[in-house]
């Protein structure tokens, strides 16, 4: 028995050496500003559509450029990267993914996003800095598509991740997030507890990210170190259901669909997990952020699949009131090259971005 306990302590110490750990404050629920939600009934009534710019901008590609695009798409279609739903992801793939995230957390920051304390926090700080340009307007979906893909490529380039990328079909866990083995299996993301008796979150003390300190957030703060915390509300996660996704995807123009997706399943997923994940500015501090956004990007891609014209049109205004076009620039602040919306609207475009080909689809 003593030898077993010794090995357990040894294993815990080894894990602790990988991630930066320090005694961190468990902030109260009031410290985190929840993401703005669009209730299902309001989405049904279309209350979010008032004043929305639905004028379409169409594809800028034509002539020789259009032929080059078609060739790139054909090459991509022959050998796309396939994102695998978590339930079909093997144990070895899951462990490799978690290990790559921990690797990024253990790497020093680039220095381009102070006061990030790790390469992982470079991404958290970028997300925080870009608020509110990337939330609360139709740029949300396309920017987060590129943000997620950039993070994936960074895992591959800097941490040797060589497995398919995972995604999470939250509709299969709606109202029951806490029982997903992403949270119950201690090799993965750590537990998903409900609130304490005072309605506040718990620090995460299990899983691969136990004891993690977040240095970015809440909100715009960069001087409030706090623990990675969660407080699930399954009445909110229940809104990540197929009915809500289908309602959003029944809208026929991009800006209308985006509004529903962002305020609906997206917002409810963040708030349902709670605490750090509900803090819209710094929510990438919780590694489950990436799984949640794989779900949101999946829903976006399914909407696009329903009509080929959706791959070559865009509408809506950005945070500053500028109409989005397919030539609108999407930037991740030099972590990867700037792109246009037209280059990433189609995940199977095959466009070359730096040393990587933008080419992926979902397993279903």
TrEMBL record:
<dbReference type="InterPro" id="IPR008922">
    <property type="entry name" value="Di-copper_centre_dom_sf"/>
</dbReference>
<feature type="domain" description="Tyrosinase copper-binding">
    <location>
        <begin position="135"/>
        <end position="152"/>
    </location>
</feature>
<keyword id="KW-0732">Signal</keyword>
<dbReference type="GO" id="GO:0046872">
    <property type="term" value="F:metal ion binding"/>
</dbReference>
<feature type="domain" description="Tyrosinase copper-binding">
    <location>
        <begin position="286"/>
        <end position="297"/>
    </location>
</feature>
<dbReference type="InterPro" id="IPR050316">
    <property type="entry name" value="Tyrosinase/Hemocyanin"/>
</dbReference>
<protein>
    <submittedName>
        <fullName>Tyrosinase</fullName>
    </submittedName>
</protein>
<dbReference type="Pfam" id="PF00264">
    <property type="entry name" value="Tyrosinase"/>
</dbReference>
<keyword id="KW-0479">Metal-binding</keyword>
<dbReference type="InterPro" id="IPR002227">
    <property type="entry name" value="Tyrosinase_Cu-bd"/>
</dbReference>
<feature type="signal peptide">
    <location>
        <begin position="1"/>
        <end position="16"/>
    </location>
</feature>
<dbReference type="GO" id="GO:0016491">
    <property type="term" value="F:oxidoreductase activity"/>
</dbReference>
């Amino acid at each position: 028995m003593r030898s077993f306990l010794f090995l357990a302590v040894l294993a815990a110490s080894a894990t602790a050496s990988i991630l930066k750990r320090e005694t961190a404050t468990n902030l109260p629920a009031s410290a985190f500003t929840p993401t703005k939600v669009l209730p299902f009934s309001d989405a049904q009534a279309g209350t979010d559509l008032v004043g929305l710019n639905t004028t379409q901008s169409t594809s800028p590609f034509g002539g020789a450029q259009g032929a080059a695009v078609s060739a790139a798409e054909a090459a991509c279609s022959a050998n796309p990267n396939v994102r695998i739903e978590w339930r079909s992801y093997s144990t070895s793939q899951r462990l490799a993914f978690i290990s790559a995230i921990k690797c990024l957390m253990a790497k020093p920051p680039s220095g381009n996003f102070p006061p990030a304390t790790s390469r992982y926090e470079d991404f958290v700080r970028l997300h925080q800095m870009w608020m509110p340009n990337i939330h609360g307007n139709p740029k949300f979906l396309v920017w987060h598509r590129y943000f997620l893909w950039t993070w994936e490529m960074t895992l591959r380039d800097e941490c040797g991740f060589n497995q398919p990328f995972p995604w999470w079909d939250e509709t299969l866990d709606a109202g029951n997030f806490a029982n997903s083995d992403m949270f119950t299996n201690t090799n993965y993301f750590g537990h998903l507890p409900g609130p304490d008796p005072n309605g506040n979150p718990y620090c995460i003390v299990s899983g691969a990210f136990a004891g993690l300190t977040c240095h970015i957030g809440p909100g715009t703060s960069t001087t409030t170190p706090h623990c990675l915390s969660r407080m699930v509300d399954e009445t909110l996660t229940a809104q990540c259901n197929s009915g809500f996704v289908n309602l959003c995807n029944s809208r026929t123009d991009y800006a209308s669909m985006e509004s529903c997706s962002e305020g609906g399943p997206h917002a409810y997923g963040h708030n349902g997990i709670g605490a750090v994940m509900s803090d819209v500015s710094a929510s990438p501090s919780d590694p489950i952020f990436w799984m949640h956004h794989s779900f949101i990007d999946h829903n976006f891609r399914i909407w696009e699949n329903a009509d080929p014209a959706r791959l070559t049109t865009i509408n809506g205004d950005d945070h500053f009131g500028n109409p989005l076009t397919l030539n609108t620039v999407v930037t991740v602040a030099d972590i990867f090259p700037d792109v246009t919306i037209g280059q990433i609207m189609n995940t199977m475009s095959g466009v070359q971005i730096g040393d990587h080909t933008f080419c992926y689809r979902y397993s279903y």
